[in-house]
Amino acid sequence: MLTGQGEPTADARQAEILLPLGGPKGSGLSLMFEMLASLTAGAPIQARTLGPEKRTRNTGNTAMFAIDIAAFRPLGDFTSDADTLAALIKALPRQAGIDEITLPGERSSRTEAVRRKTGIPIPPKLWEELAGIAKANAIKMMASG
Q1: Whole-model pTM?
Q2: Domain interval for residue 128
Q3: What is the rounded distance in angstroms from the CA atom of residue 142 to the CA atom of residue 73?
Q4: Rounded mean pLDDT of 116-143?
Q5: Strand partners, 2
Q6: Residue 145: band (very low, low, confident or very high) from pLDDT cuts 50, 70, 90
C-alpha cells in the first residue's frame, strides 16, 4: 500500500493506494479487470477511490462474458489443451512443505463435498445465538452436531 504522498506503508490507517500483486504485470492485469468488470458495468471502483471523490466505502462489481470457444477452434481440442495445461501445472516441482499445487476451485470443491456429507460446522457461540433467535420466534431448531 502507499500513503497519499506515494510512500510505502503497512499501516491500513495511512494507506490510500492499494498496490497490485505482481509488479507491472499485476498492475496491467488489475487495470484490465477494472476496465472489464467495473467500467463495462458502468460502476467504476478505482476512479472513485483514487479520484476527487476519494470514496472509502468498499464496492464490487461482476461482469460476465460468454465466449464461444468453438468459434475459434474445435471445443474438444480446447478441452484437451486445457486438461494438459492443468496437469502440467499440477506436476510442477513444489516448495518444501507444499504437498499439492491446487488450481482455482479445487479446494472449495473438496470442502463442498465434505460438507455435503458431514454438514457445515457452526461454532457453539453462533449456534447458541441462533437458538436464542429461534426460541424468541417460536421456531424449532434441529439438534446440534
Answers
A1: 0.54
A2: 104-145
A3: 52
A4: 93
A5: 8, 17
A6: low
Cell of residue 139, nine digits: 421456531
Domain count of the chain?
Answer: 1
In this predicted structure, what is the pLDDT of residue 46? 74
User: Does a structural domain hold residue 117?
Assistant: yes
Gap between the Cα atoms of 145 and 134, Å rounded:
17
Domain contains 46? no
Three-state DSSP at 133 gives: helix
The pLDDT of residue 31: 85
What are 34's three cell numbers?
A: 477494472
Which pLDDT belongs to residue 58?
67
Opening angle at CA 105, ends 107 and 110, nearest 5: 35
Residue 8: strand pairing partners: 2
Cα separation, 23 vs 140, whole angstroms: 54
* 138 found inside a domain: yes
- Look at residue 124 and tell me if it is in a domain: yes
**Grid cell in block for residue 132:** 436464542
| pLDDT at residue 131 is higher than 90 | yes
Q: How far apart are CA 46 and CA 35, in angstroms?
A: 10
Which grid coordinates are listed for 115? 460438507
